[in-house]
Amino acid sequence: MKQVLVACGAGIATSTVVNNAIEELAKENGIKVDLKQIRIAEVSTYEDTADLLVTTAMTKKEYTFPVINARTFLTGIGVEDTKKQILEELLK
Amino acid sequence: MSEFRFNEEVILMNLEAADYTEVLQQMGENLVKHHYVKDSFIPAIIEREQEFATGLPTAGVSVAIPHTDAVHVNQKTISIATLKNPVDFVIMGEVSETTPVQIVFMLAMDEPHSQLELLQDLMKIFQEGTFLDQLLQTDSVLDMKKQVTEKLNLSDFKGGERL
Questions:
Q1: Any idea what the CATH number is for the domain that residue A43 is in?
Q2: Most buried among A77, B72, B75, B161, using CB within 10 Å?
């Protein structure tokens, strides 16, 4: 099972929406994921276990796993592309 | 958990501000005045915006959704301001790219992880560009309150159960 980090600045607002969207996306596609909704500052705690980071916050740091910008889940613009990117990572 | 309250007093129309800090300052002062948030909310929300920007280009006009930690909040609400002139906010997830924001939805929330439906409904508004345009053209606070209340199903809220 892939571990997916869902992070925003505070870990309370936008990550809640994105977390739910990914949960649904995974369910629709019959994929089990280990979702962790966190603050962006907490990402390093999961450095060794995470497979993917989906975030609405700015990240300057380089990670060993891919990072996908989740702003489209909030605005709807380009959200299908984002979903496709996430699915590709989940199915790897 | 406090009740969610959405009244005319949290709606500011044609706010004049030179930059986003001024927008947050004025909206924050208004919430402090009406006891929705503590004094500490204002510096906290400005600092959060500097670190994690919340500008969002949408299908219609650009919006921003500034928010900060629950510890600064007394009473849950969403404060809305339409801006007389667009004010640049850095786009969420970007380092320096900005978007000219015309409507600000300031979220005062007191329970982490518990406002999913409300946030989802808010994002739905952003995805329907026409509703934002309609809000901008609204000329009374009462009318704006009515439109947002209907759109976010806020009339269902009693005792904050839905949150």
A1: 3.40.50.2300
A2: B72
